[in-house]
Amino acid sequence: MKLKKMKNISSKIFSLLMTIIAIFFISNHSLSENFFNEAKQKFDQKKYEDSKFLFQRNIVFNPKDAESYLYLAKIYKNEENEKEEIKNLNTTLLLDPTNEEAMHLMINFELKKSNYAKVKDLKESFLLICKKLCKEVDQIEKSLADIEPKNGS
Question: What gap in Å lies between CA 33 and CA 88, rounded to an integer?
């Protein structure tokens, strides 16, 4: 009788713990979504410091959220912090190699640095993934021609 009662209590405790764990994971997921949505809203309002804090907080709850890294890269670009901009673009592309916006931002960064070889490689990758920004290829080609290494230079 006591053994049956113990099993029943253990079963109830286990069920309670599983419920608590499920609630914790569900609330964390919705909390991270709220951070991203609020951060995006602040970004759209050009409140970059508030937005940056919220995107960073979102990454704590969801470290594989490529979009948060992309927005951080945009914020750092606006702040002219190239090191952090590139770090976040690289992270975005590591998590989502088909993110054409991140690839396009990376190409523009490398064009600004006149890094012909890197732009040429990135352009080839960009051609494979572009959907919305394919019209930018002509501009990339024109910019590449402007920095192309000349024979005899």
Answer: 20
| pLDDT, tens digit, 9 for 90 and up, residues 69-111 | 999 999 999 999 999 999 999 999 999 999 999 999 999 999 9
CA–CA distance, 89 with 96 (Å, rounded to integer) = 10
pTM over 0.90: no
Q: How far apart are CA 150 and CA 153, in angstroms?
A: 6
Pick from 28, 37, 45: nearest CA to 68: 37
Tokens 């960009």, located at residue: 126
CA distance 42 to 106: 24
Which position has the token pair 């608590």?
20
Residue 68's CB is within 10 A of a number of other CB atoms, namely: 28
